[in-house]
Structure prediction request, 508 residues.
Amino acid sequence: MFQKICTIYHDGIRARRLDIEVDILPGLPAIHMIGVSETVARGVRERVHSAFLAAGFSFPAKRITVNLRCPDTARLKAGLDLPVALGILCADLQAPCHRNATTAVIGDLSLNGDIHPVQRIGSFGPLVHGDLAKAGISSILVPAGNTAEASLLPDLEILPVATLAEAAALWCGRLTIDPLPHVPLHYARPPADTLLSIRGQLAGKRALMVACAGGHNLLFLGPPGCGKTLLAQAAPCLLPVPSEEDLQHLLMIRALSETHLTQQVSRPIRSPHHSITAHALIGGGRPIQPGEITRADHGLLILDEAAEFATGVLEHLRTPLESHQIRLRYLDQAETLPADFMLVGTTNLCPCGQFPSPACSCSLHAIRRYQGRLSTALIERIDLCVLLDAVPDTDRQVYTPADVTHLQEQIQQAADRQRSRFRKESFTLNSRIPPGKIETYCKLHPSAASLFREACARFHLSLRTRHNLLKTARSIADLADQEQIGTQQIAEALQYRPKGFLSGAMPT
Prediction:
């Protein structure tokens, strides 16, 4: 008899639906598994056979064919035992089907019939809103050990089971289990201790505020010890609170690095060492694995001492910074991974780190070669470049907790204005406005338009730089609760453009 069971498997960072077909026909006793490697098939066969006997079921002495319709069999490694076992039970009429039309199944079996938990069940949220909803799946059988994570899934009836016998009884209607109550996700904002510890650097703090409000890429430049790294590390506490949909996406990204998920969700913060390889930064391999830029999706990618990174590695960031995704291919496998991160970088301006101070001992050639590690094409994709000076001993000015709370409220209000403005668009941040929408959402006051045209002509700004300048000014205007961009916003945005200090000449 033929039977179909729905299950879920991880395909890279995403979860996907998979239909398992089971057919039992007269013939020599055997289990033939199609669409999975022989190593995985052998393990599933042995575990299912032993679990059958331990649970008190008789294993069919017939020809059993299991078809797994998966486009990439290398992804199928866990969670197949329980759906295959239930499929065989239903097809053999030992557990007549009662609820498989609207129920998915996932879980691994032990030899004694117990159901082992599987990893990353809490990251199935985006799939629930997509493929499962379209297929009419309203409930899911999960291992009892995954109860805490599975309760994070929205709009889905969670049915925990501990043994194969219990799962079979529930499947055929002889047992009733109360569904788990849904546990809502909460955003955990990082503490502001780092920001509170920074003395002075009001220009750097203001740039950090603008960058966090609009999701802009930011680069701090200056001598060692001036606070560049501390400012970069302070960014997480200023990022706005994500939406409910974004929380589910953040949980999926978090599952790439953590095995146990909780209802407390925070934005990812990735800070790779400058010795990282291109493969580790952007991802790759077979099967294709996500890199640091995907693990930083909807969060921060901090590149401390950016000029120390290998030039070839940094150049791989150019396309993701523009398209906010990365397309990878290995032999016959291709995958598009998300890379919608905010870049915060820090760097010195010369090998000794003292340029443009008179204390710099580097030659002009060494300065130009060092700064050349950050190519013009990469710098053009960074919206804000801020040159910091060493903090004098007399500058004791620091932020208080009340100041930080006020900054967070301003940034959150600016983010809310963007979400309201872009509610009909596919983007929610000013930094993500596509070129075709610039004129629509970045309207200039006549005096500001005149200043903008003059600046473009005087500094010979490229089209990309002009668009980035307008998007930065849009975020500054949102912080000031102004719908129209004025001269003050254009003037401040111009201050964040790189000047001579990224070309090997003394700044003016």
User: Anything to note?
Assistant: The chain has two domains: 2-171, 193-426. DSSP finds 20 helices and 20 strands in the chain.
